[in-house]
Design goal:
Distance between the termini: 29 Å
Number of helices: 8
Largest sheet: 8 strands, mixed
Radius of gyration: 16 Å
Shape: globular
Strand content: 15-25%
Helix content: 40-55%
Oligomer: single chain
Order of helices and strands: EEHEHEHEHEHEHHEH
């Protein structure tokens, strides 16, 4: 089911970037600052943002910052979250889906590549599902969809260390490491996507 939150703008030739981030802002103001920086960088390149459709935490910061810069923002949110008034109401499109599994599936379908800001277990769940689908060639509309970790103030250092250990042990493929790079700024994240997207 699709619920338009406002009149839809004309389609843009720019690619759609799925952004994974927390439903909380966290203790460090650097996370919100990095989220605003990413919204600004996406606006400069006329990308569409696809995200979890929420109005709280870093999700809300992302959507509000992007809308201030006239970025087209598409949200995907489960019905249960709409019922507790967590849906953002000013988006170009708001897709209301039955559950979290359908949310991930539609975000992956609507996005050409992904950026992960700091977040919790839900964010990591989304990151690894995207990477797994790329490994198994399950993305219907594009064979390879990179997912860049926006590693602000070393937030993802422990995850990167685990990936490097798993790679060294032969448990993670070279291709996986290539399609899940870690960078420290929004500009570098978008540069990585432009180099990796197929």
């Amino acid at each position: 089911m699709t619920t338009p939150a406002s009149s839809r703008p004309a389609p843009t030739p720019a690619s759609s970037i799925g952004v994974f981030c927390g439903a909380r802002t966290g203790r460090d103001p650097a996370w919100a600052s990095a989220t605003r920086e990413l919204a600004h960088a996406l606006a400069q390149r006329n990308h569409t943002i696809v995200y979890g459709g929420g109005n709280v935490g870093l999700m809300g910061v992302l959507a509000d910052s992007a809308l201030e810069r006239n970025v087209r923002v598409v949200g995907v949110i489960p019905e249960s979250m709409v019922r507790v008034e967590l849906a953002h109401t000013r988006l170009a499109e708001l897709h209301v889906v039955p559950d979290m599994l359908e949310r991930k599936k539609l975000i992956m379908q609507l996005s050409d590549a992904f950026i992960a800001l700091p977040g919790g277990v839900g964010t990591l769940d989304e990151v690894f599902e995207v990477v797994t689908w790329t490994q198994l060639s399950l993305h219907a509309n594009r064979p390879k969809k990179p997912c860049v970790l926006l590693n602000i103030r070393g937030f993802y250092d422990p995850l990167v260390a685990w990936l490097e250990r798993a790679h060294a042990e032969g448990l993670v493929m070279d291709e996986t490491m290539r399609l899940l790079p870690s960078v420290t700024s929004a500009e570098h994240a978008l540069e990585q996507i432009s180099q990796l997207i197929v």
